[in-house]
Amino acid sequence: MGAGEERPAPPHQHHDDAIHNNDENFNDPLTKVIQHPSTPQRKPGDFVILYCAINLRQERVKTCKFTWFVIGPKGTRSEFFPDKTQQYGGRLVRSQNGGHYITLLLGDLQLNDSGTYICRAECTVDCEPWSSDGNGTALLVADYHSGRVTQGGSNLSALKWQYTLLILNALVLCVVLAISVSMCRKLSKKTALCGFSQALCCRQYI
């Protein structure tokens, strides 16, 4: 291995080290409960992994209990985990290690899964009870082929804007061609340009 080259991470390195290094919030001492990712976008049938970790020195933290809440499109807040686990019919899987972080895998996503997922940690820190909420994960589940997008945390989708722009461009072109045809008729000049404009404008309305 040449000088200056980085050595690869050992295979046994804990997977959350990569998340700690890539997420700027882990370097913020004011943020005590970290969630990752922040704004995932998925299609129906996909899955998402929700990660929540304590941003405190592990020797200070003894025991932790994690509770997840979801804020729906109408702003209602309800407990998502652990009380509602059975309502997801096996779509929700939990993984936890050491009591300092938790990951949830939510599979077979549906449109109504859109919302902001909040992780709350209740721990014993320095022999004292402590609790804090995470920064939230705003999940958007959208069917871009049909244009169906829920209002769980996003504005109009980019696809809808593309369709709107295409329609506006077609209408503007049609108006321009219609004006051109009208001018040609007034001048009584039956040129090839006139015939082409008429045919192209009619084709836009078909």
From TrEMBL:
Keywords: Immunoglobulin domain, Membrane, Transmembrane, Transmembrane helix. SUPFAM superfamilies: Immunoglobulin. GO terms for biological process: B cell differentiation; B cell receptor signaling pathway. Residues 1-30 are annotated as: Disordered. Residues 29-122 form the Ig-like domain. One of its GO terms (cellular component) is B cell receptor complex. The chain crosses the membrane at residues 161-181. SMART domains: IG (SM00409). Coiled coil: none annotated. Residues 1-23 have a biased composition (Basic and acidic residues). It comes from the Eukaryota. PROSITE patterns: IG_LIKE. This is Ig-like domain-containing protein.
